[in-house]
Design brief:
The protein has 449 residues and is mostly helical. The radius of gyration is 21 Å and the shape is globular.
Length: 449
């Protein structure tokens, strides 16, 4: 299919701020790892353990919040302001409740950290970081609600500015609290958690004040009414949001299970895995920016009933994802050791990370394809079947393959990560096939009218 350059330019214009916003979140995690990594391998492994558990829980709220974007996008295409405001208001109510429940769950889970087969020193070090970062889930999910609303109406720049600003604050606070600078106490690993909590609290506050003071966006609050909070709209948000959350959970859960199995291989393997996961998160967040643009543009054209443009925007996004992820793969293959040395001075950790980066180089393109295809499917609110595909790809393919290669066949850390590679390849194939099949069905039904 030949695609005009207009479709690529539109994708890039919308995707670029999302990329910076999402990459900013990954950079904060990376900054935590780099700064904590200077304290030693056990400290780095502690951040890895706590971060994997919290992120795997937090993605439930992130997924449910993401369901707002295609619903707002389709209403925006029809200029239905009251419907847009109704979804936004109900999403705020829903996501606040979800965030509180997720935080409560994390605190209930905390006593069981020692039962996950991890090194004792790692579990002891991670508790302060775990508590503070768990509390930060509440403001972060509220920020996601504002972000997904604004992206639904096509504005991706505000979230970018807020994210980058708060990330700079986070890194500065890391320096103060981790190392005890400017008169602050030395908090070590817990200092990274405190910095994250403060910066994430500022994010939804900044978004609210921006919208409240903006003549362009403030009118949305005029449609807010107590009577508009209703179970019907919350049910619609959940119908789109919970399958997205389910898909995200199984993907992150598979990575978390890989992380847990890395812990079985020792502190060195766990620390090296955390370095590689930090870099994967960065490139994944950037390709997620392309996927986010696909969701927005596809939802707008789908709302207008223009299926031909839906296909062009989706295919343009897929091609952009391939180009970007291929570049990332080359960098990881060639510069794995220098990248790892930024995080830690430990030569044993650097060597294991270098080997893992070769495995990453193999699956980067498939990672970009699967997340971008998912973005297009979300734009047409096709979310139920992809959740099932994700369950199969990550939990029934990736994790068993990883266990067999890494533990049973004793290929170690590289074997574990190779299993995840197999799951990504399987997922990318299923998602792309699903989107193409859906488009053919849509075109056929319209031609039959």
């Amino acid at each position: 299919m030949r695609i005009s350059s207009v479709y690529y330019k539109q994708n890039i214009r919308i995707a670029f701020p999302i990329m910076l916003s999402l990459a900013g979140q990954a950079i904060v995690q990376m900054a935590d790892n780099i700064m904590v990594g200077q304290l030693g391998a056990p400290e780095l492994a502690a951040v890895s353990l706590a971060g994997a558990i919290i992120m795997n829980t937090m993605v439930v709220g992130m997924g449910i919040a993401t369901g707002l974007t295609p619903l707002v996008g389709q209403a925006f295409a029809l200029n239905d302001k009251e419907r847009i405001a109704g979804f936004f208001q109900n999403s705020l109510v829903l996501n606040t409740a979800v965030a509180l429940l997720l935080t409560l769950f994390l605190f209930i889970l905390m006593p069981y950290l020692s039962m996950m087969g991890q090194p004792t020193e790692v579990v002891a070090l991670c508790k302060g970081y775990y508590i503070l970062t768990s509390l930060s889930v509440i403001p972060f999910i509220l920020f996601m609600t504002f972000k997904q609303y604004m992206e639904g109406i096509g504005n991706t720049k505000v979230a970018m500015v807020i994210t980058i600003s708060c990330n700079v604050m986070n890194i500065f606070l890391n320096y103060i609290f981790i190392y005890g600078k400017f008169g602050a106490p030395f908090l070590g690993v817990a200092g990274a958690g405190l910095a994250t909590l403060i910066s994430r609290t500022m994010m939804p506050m900044a978004f609210f004040f921006y919208i409240h003071r903006s003549a362009v966006y403030n009118p949305v609050f005029r449609f807010f009414r107590m009577a508009n909070t209703n179970s019907r709209k919350i049910k619609q948000l959940l119908q789109v949001g919970y399958p997205i959350a389910g898909q995200m959970v199984v993907e992150f859960l598979s990575l978390s299970l890989i992380t847990v199995m890395m812990g079985w291989l020792g502190t060195i393997a766990l620390a090296a895995n955390q370095i590689v996961m930090s870099m994967i998160s960065l490139t994944f967040m950037i390709s997620s920016g392309i996927a986010g643009a696909s969701t927005i543009l596809v939802s707008h054209e789908y709302g207008r009933g223009n299926i031909a443009k839906v296909r062009r925007y989706a295919h343009a996004s897929l091609r952009l994802a391939v180009v970007f992820m291929a570049g990332a793969a080359i960098i990881y293959a060639l510069f794995g050791a220098p990248i790892a040395s930024i995080f830690t001075p430990d030569p044993a950790v650097i060597e294991v990370a270098r080997q893992l980066f070769f495995v990453v180089a193999v699956f980067e393109i498939f990672d970009g394809l699967q997340v971008t295809a998912l973005g297009a499917l979300r734009g047409i609110t096709d979310v139920q079947r992809p959740m099932i595909y994700a369950l199969i790809s990550y939990l029934l393919v990736a994790v068993p393959l990883g266990y067999i290669a890494g533990i049973a066949l004793n290929f170690g850390p590289c074997g574990l990560l190779s299993g995840f590679c197999g799951g990504l390849m399987f997922a990318a194939t299923l998602f792309i096939r699903r989107f193409n099949k859906s488009m053919k069905k849509q075109l056929k039904s319209r031609n039959d009218l």
